[in-house]
Specification:
Blueprint lengths: L1 E5 L4 H12 L3 E9 L18 H4 L2 H5 L3 E5 L19 H14 L3 E5 L6 H14 L2 E3 L7 H10 L3 E7 L6 H4 L4 H15 L10 E7 L6 E14 L6 E13 L1 H10 L3 H7 L2 E3 L4 H4 L15 H6 E5 L5 E9 L8 H18 L7 E8 L5 H11 L11 E6 L7 E11 L5 E3 L18 E4 L2 E4 L2 E2 L1 E2 L4 E2 L4 H17 L5 H4 E9 L4 H24 L10 E7 L8 E8 L35 E6 L3 E9 H9 L15 H21 L7 E9 L6 H19 L11 E5 L1 E3 L6 E10 L2
Parallel strand pairs: 1-2, 1-4, 2-3, 3-10, 4-5, 13-14, 22-23, 27-28
Antiparallel strand pairs: 6-7, 6-9, 8-9, 11-12, 12-15, 13-15, 16-17, 17-18, 18-24, 19-24, 20-21, 22-24, 23-29, 25-26, 26-30, 27-30
């Protein structure tokens, strides 16, 4: 990509440019924001470093690329962590600056910044990039600061301190010193006082005088003045005010220019400095496309739209799909609009909006239309509608048309409150894959971390790792762990559930390798953390493998972890006396047997969470059906008709009820209930739904342990295969999530 780099003069923005080049991008312009008054060194700004701005103007000649500058007119008006376009805010100066750069150099598609740990700055750069249709590149994001500082020094960043404001840093002693000479002292201060060795906490600021990007000249500071802003005895604050400097040409750049035959006119244009004017207040106007959710749906489509919803009021899942028994559809665009509009109207009926949604499962019939699906998606779920953060998301191709559905199938997890914590990093970095658009990496709510589906993407390039399904899986798990660490946990000890989506492009002979790789990764990661002394309260996750036609980017594997983050729970103690551990009555004629336990995986945190995976393999299905009165025990064709599926459905409900009751949970605690069924059953979803509905109605009438409303409480998910192992040969697989508050 062609990149405009935000430069403050500091070491971080310069090294970020070097990382951009390392990953194959091209720096074609620089952008800098400076005070309106040249005599002012530093502004009271949460966003911009301005100390040393008098020297930054020479970066154009040093690098041989144009520099665009704008004098800051705005101030800090929007002080919340997340940012919304605000008139008169200093962020709008950056927006105007980058908009002009893009106008003059239309080929630019990305913006580089040196953010390492500041969410405040990253959010604002991403906000502006999103508005201008640019990609944010933040290759220093979340990197270990000790290693990062060493990298900068090793890779030729020559930078001096131009501001100090921390315990142990003395303006008289340390201003104007090169970072290479302060490196060991900064590590000492880190151990003594906990300062950030890269200065991310504002402990110090730097000015880069030379680096490998300065191919034409280096900067020599001839004279400077130390200005003391605060004489505090513990942490004095001082800045360096440059008085005189000059450029020292590099011999190699001159010969390079001569051999390339570059003329003076071209050089003048390449290293030009352009000051961008414009009124911040006038240019700041809210943009965005709104969708009228209340508009009437087409009567024909409305008749085909169906909804399911769990009974829990404060945290529930809701699903919408198009019943299309003719196996034809008007197209993804119309189907998806109808489904999203229906969900939006249902949310409004409950007094909710998209801001109440924690997670979205987006199922489409053809991954070739993924871009079109996103185009429709972003018109409904926007950052403006979700001020606390957009929902996390996974996108999967399912065989929808084969079972009589439309081309889009959407499931949402909804909460009544606004206590969620969302991690949404849109910048491309070395940390974890970016989420460019209105979907986030993870959402934490009531101690449960709902993580977006992770692919085996190499974060800095956003390309799939080569090497097959096990390599992709390992990278997806590494990416998942990077996200988990932002919530002070790890997939190796906090995961309660892994859903592993496997593409049919994985040969059957290699699927067992996926299972082995997951087991090995978890063991190795736990051992590593145990050796570091930071492993405690290890949870034993349950596993669900799902075979699907395709995944985004033609990935072979997608991992969707769900984690329990105990530290974020307000209360983790439970009152045992209030929990009703009961033996569920057997309302059907199932005889209790030891093999029932082989169907079940469960992860239970007493009084809080109960997650169940119930797997009915072909072999167990035959056993269940053979125990039915009047069953033909000589049936050897292994085919299951309506009568057999009806029997299997009742067995699933019976066993789920038994596990729930035995662990102190009720059907009213369920937040999500899915039944996966293979298309190999050759049964339309409409038929299967009727079987499940009748079984649940019968169970509700007999047991009085569950209330049934007009919508079913379960979702039926058509897949090519599913199961608790990578063989994925179940007739029916259930995923149940229940949670108490």
């Amino acid at each position: 990509m062609k990149v405009v780099a935000l430069v403050s003069g500091g070491k971080d923005s310069c090294y970020a440019m070097m990382k951009c080049i390392q990953y194959g991008h091209e720096i074609v312009a620089l952008a800098n924001l400076l005070p309106a008054d040249d005599t002012v060194d530093e502004l009271d700004s949460y966003m911009y470093q301005t100390v040393g701005h008098q020297i930054v103007v020479s970066y154009a000649k040093c690098m041989g690329v144009p520099l665009f500058r704008r004098r800051i007119q705005g101030s800090t008006r929007h002080q919340n962590l997340s940012y919304r376009m605000t008139q008169g805010d200093e962020v709008e100066d950056m927006s105007i600056l980058l908009e002009e750069v893009k106008r003059q150099i239309p080929s630019i598609t990305a913006v580089s910044s040196g953010a390492i740990a500041s969410d405040y700055q990253r959010f604002r750069v991403e906000n502006v990039c999103s508005r201008l249709g640019l990609v944010s590149l933040a290759y220093l994001w979340k990197q270990d600061q000790s290693l990062l500082l060493q990298e900068m020094v090793t890779n030729g960043i020559v930078a001096i301190t131009v501001k100090v404001a921390a315990m142990g840093l003395d303006p008289a002693k340390h201003l104007g010193k090169e970072i290479i000479n302060l490196q060991s002292y900064l590590h000492k201060l880190n151990k003594l006082y906990g300062i950030n060795v890269c200065g991310e906490g504002g402990e110090y600021e730097t000015l880069t005088l030379d680096c490998p990007l300065f191919r034409n000249a280096r900067i020599v500071l001839d004279k400077f003045q130390v200005v003391l802003h605060s004489s505090d005895s513990i942490a004095p604050v001082g800045i360096l005010h440059p008085l005189a400097f000059h450029l020292e040409n590099k011999v190699e750049s001159i010969s390079l220019s001569a051999t390339n035959g570059t003329n003076d006119a071209c050089l003048e244009k390449i290293d030009s400095v352009c000051e961008v004017q414009g009124d911040c207040l006038r240019r700041c106007a809210a943009k965005g496309e709104s969708v009228d959710a209340a508009s009437d749906l087409d009567d024909v489509i409305e008749h085909r739209l169906l909804i399911s919803k769990t009974r829990k009021d404060n945290l529930f899942s809701m699903c919408c799909w198009l019943q299309d028994s003719s196996k034809t559809s008007s197209g993804l665009q119309e189907d998806m609009k109808a489904v999203l509009k229906k969900i939006e109207s249902q949310l409004m009926e409950y007094g909710f909006g998209w801001e109440n949604v924690l997670y979205i499962h987006l199922y489409i019939s053809d991954m070739n239309e993924f871009a079109l699906a996103n185009e429709i998606y972003v018109k409904y779920i926007t950052q403006e509608k979700c001020p606390l953060g957009v929902p996390s998301r996974s996108t999967i191709e399912l065989p929808l048309l084969q079972v009589g559905l439309g081309r889009a199938y959407v499931e949402v997890l909804v909460t009544y409150d606004q206590s969620k914590r969302v991690l949404h990093v849109q910048s491309i970095s070395c940390w974890a894959p970016s989420c460019i658009g209105p979907y986030s990496q993870a959402t934490l709510h009531k101690g449960i971390l709902h993580m977006a589906g992770q692919l085996g993407l190499d974060p800095p390039t956003m390309n799939l790792c080569s090497g097959g399904p096990t390599v992709e899986l390992e990278q997806a798990l590494i990416n998942s762990d990077a996200v988990a660490k932002c919530f002070n946990c790890s997939v190796s000890n906090a995961a309660i559930l892994f859903v592993i989506y496997c593409s049919t492009r994985i040969p059957p002979s290699e699927r067992i390798g996926v299972q082995d790789k997951l087991d090995t990764f978890l063991k190795q990661t736990r051992l590593f953390q145990e050796n570091k002394g930071c492993l405690s309260n290890v949870l034993d996750p349950i596993l669900l493998y799902v075979l699907v036609p395709d995944l985004p980017k033609r990935a072979l594997v997608e991992v969707k972890p769900v984690l329990y983050v105990e530290d974020d729970m307000k209360t983790t103690e439970t009152t045992v006396e209030d929990m009703s551990f009961t033996i569920a009555p057997n309302h059907w004629d199932f005889q209790e047997a030891s093999w029932h336990d082989t169907c079940i995986q469960k992860s239970v945190i007493p009084g809080t969470i109960c997650v169940i995976i119930l797997s009915v393999t072909n072999e167990l299905a035959m056993k269940i059906c053979s125990e039915s009165p009047g069953c033909n025990r000589n049936n050897q064709d292994h085919r299951f008709g309506n009568e057999q599926i009806d029997r299997i459905t009742r067995f699933c409900i019976y066993l789920l009820d038994k596990v729930l009751a035995g662990n102190g949970f009720s059907w009213e605690d369920i937040t999500n209930l899915k039944f996966y069924f293979p298309t190999g059953l050759c049964m339309p979803l409409e038929t299967l739904s009727l079987i499940f509905t009748n079984a649940f109605n019968e169970f509700a009438e007999m047991s009085q342990r569950i209330k049934i409303g007009k919508e079913p409480i379960f979702n039926l998910i058509p897949v090519l295969g599913a199961g608790k192992t990578s063989s994925m040969d179940d007739i029916i697989t259930c995923e149940l999530f229940s949670q108490k508050h």
